[in-house]
Amino acid sequence: MASIWELSIKAKIGRLPLETSIRNFVERQLARGQISVLPIHARHTFRLAELPLHHRDPFDRMLAAQSLEESLPLISRDPLLAPYQLVQVW
Known about the structure:
By secondary structure, this protein is mainly alpha-helical.
């Protein structure tokens, strides 16, 4: 959900040019990749509040919190996430 939220903002401010609506783009990509959406739960925000400020981007911090809370790998090349000691794939 955090990634969809970030994409929606970037599309709105023109940093993600799309030829279709953000809804159509995301739904098509989710179906194509057989990707399920992880909702943002209260436990994710509690984990986020416990994280040190290694990374300042609020979306990336939420992804890190979700990765840690759910024991899931995070697909990202961002080296600023490494200090969180989560499993990064890319």
